[in-house]
Specification:
385 residues; 0% strand; 69% helix; mainly alpha
C-alpha cells in the first residue's frame, strides 16, 4: 500500500497541483526497496510485540496448550531438560502469519511473486492449524495423518511448478537449472520435468524439514531467521539487474519485492522469538513451521536458487536426514534381525544431543552457530562461480 503513496506527487504534478506535489515529495521515499525493506522488518516486529501477548492469552483461555508429553519426554533420558513442555500454548504460528501477511500488504508492491508466496503461507498455515487443532483438542501428539499433509504439500508444490512452467515470462524458473558455484545455466532435454520435480521437492522438503526442527525453544524460528537473512540478500540481488549481471546470478524481474517479504519474515520471526526463547511462553506449532518452511522453498524457486536453500538451510537438512537415516535403518534391521536398531539416540538430531546430556539452551545456541556457518557458505556462492 505504501508504495502507491509514492506515486501521489507525480500524479499531482501532472494534474497541475505543483504546490501539493512539492509538499508531498517526501512520499517518493516509498519507491525504494531498501526503505520499504527496513520498514517491513520494523513493522512486523512491532506487530508481534503488540498483539503477541493478546494471542498467547487467547490461546490459554481456549485451552490450546500442550497437556501431553512430547516425543522426547516420552522417550525419557533427558536429564539435561530442566523444564517440561507441558502446559505451554501452541498455535503461536498464528502470530507470525498475521504479522507477515499484514506487513507485506502494507509495504510491498503487489506482483505475482508476492501472490504465490502469500498463498503458500496461507495454505500451509491452514494445514498446520488443522493439525495443531487435532493434536490439542484430542491431546494426541500424532495429529492428522502424515499422508494428508504430504498430499496438500505436493499439490501446492506442483501447482506453483506448473504455473511457472507455463507462464509466458517465468518459465525459465522451471525450464533451466541454476546450481551454486557455477555461473551458467544448465539446459537439457526434458528439463521442464526435472525442474518441476526440483520445485516440488524444494517446497515439500523445506516445509517438512523446518517442521522436524521445531522441537526446542527458539530452535526452528532462530534457524529460519538465519536462512531468511540470506534470502534477503539473494532476493535483492536477483531483482537488481546490474548486481545480478555483475555477480552472474539470474536476474528475475520483480524478485526485489520478495526482499520486502523476507524482511517482514525476519521482523515477525524476531517478534515471535521474543516469546519463544527459553523458557518458551508459546510454541509456533505446525501452524508456523509448515508455513515458514514451505515459503522458504517457494522463495528459493522464485529467484532460481533452490540449491542455495539446501546450503543455507543446512541445519534443516541435517535434521531431516537424521530422521530418514534413523527410520530407514530401524526398519531395515528389524526386517533383517527381528529387532530394530538405532543410529542416533533419538531423532531428529537435536534430541540426540539432548539425550547425550546437552542442556536445551546449549543445543539451540550451537545449532545457531552451525546455521550461521551454513549461511556464510551460501553467501560465498555469490562470488565463487
Amino acid at each position: 500500500m505504501f508504495f502507491y503513496l509514492s506515486q501521489a506527487p507525480q500524479w499531482l504534478a501532472e494534474n497541475g497541483h505543483t504546490a501539493w506535489a512539492d509538499w508531498l515529495s517526501f512520499l517518493r521515499v516509498f519507491q525504494y526497496i531498501t526503505f520499504r525493506t527496513a520498514g517491513a522488518a520494523v513493522t512486523a516486529l512491532l506487530f508481534c510485540w503488540w498483539f503477541g501477548p493478546k494471542i498467547i492469552s487467547l490461546l490459554k483461555r481456549l485451552k490450546f496448550d500442550q497437556n501431553y508429553k512430547d516425543k522426547a519426554e516420552e522417550a525419557g533420558g533427558l536429564d539435561a531438560r530442566v523444564l517440561s513442555k507441558r502446559g505451554t500454548p501452541s498455535m503461536g504460528g498464528i502470530m507470525i502469519v498475521l504479522a507477515l501477511d499484514v506487513t507485506v500488504l502494507l509495504w510491498a508492491k503487489w506482483n505475482e511473486f508476492l501472490a504465490l508466496s502469500l498463498m503458500s503461507v496461507v495454505v500451509l498455515a491452514a494445514l498446520g492449524f488443522y493439525d495443531d487443532w487435532v493434536k490439542l483438542t484430542k491431546q494426541d501428539k500424532a495429529g492428522i495423518h502424515s499422508k494428508v499433509k504430504l498430499v496438500v504439500q505436493l499439490a501446492l508444490g506442483l501447482f506453483i511448478g506448473v504455473y511457472l512452467w507455463h507462464h509466458p515470462t517465468k518459465s525459465d524458473l522451471v525450464g533451466k537449472l541454476v546450481v551454486p558455484f557455477y555461473s551458467g545455466e544448465i539446459v537439457f532435454a526434458g528439463v521442464g520435468f526435472v525442474g518441476l520435480l526440483i520445485t516440488t521437492a524444494a517446497i515439500v522438503g523445506s516445509s517438512n524439514a523446518v517442521n522436524l526442527t521445531d522441537g526446542l525453544d527458539g530452535l526452528a524460528i532462530g534457524c529460519t531467521l538465519i536462512v531468511t537473512f540470506v534470502f534477503i540478500i539473494f532476493t535483492y540481488i536477483a531483482g537488481n539487474k546490474i548486481m545480478a549481471e555483475y555477480l552472474r546470478v539470474p536476474y528475475v524481474e520483480g524478485a526485489g519485492e520478495l526482499t520486502v517479504f523476507c524482511a517482514a519474515m525476519v521482523g515477525a520471526g524476531l517478534g515471535f522469538l521474543w516469546f519463544n526463547c527459553h523458557p518458551a511462553q508459546v510454541f509456533m506449532g505446525d501452524t508456523g513451521s509448515l508455513a515458514l518452511g514451505g515459503v522458504l522453498g517457494v522463495i528459493a524457486v522464485l529467484i532460481h536458487q533452490p540449491f542455495v536453500l539446501v546450503i543455507a538451510g543446512g541445519v534443516f537438512v541435517l535434521e531431516a536426514i537424521s530422521v530418514l537415516i534413523q527410520t530407514g535403518w530401524f526398519k531395515h534391521t528389524r526386517r533383517k534381525y527381528g529387532e530394530g536398531q538405532r543410529v542416533f539416540l533419538m531423532a531428529p538430531l537435536h534430541h540426540h544431543f539432548e539425550k547425550k546430556g546437552w542442556y536445551e539452551s546449549q543445543v539451540v545456541v550451537r545449532f545457531y552457530i552451525l546455521g550461521i556457518l551454513f549461511a556464510v557458505l551460501a553467501l560465498s556462492t555469490l562470488k565463487l562461480r
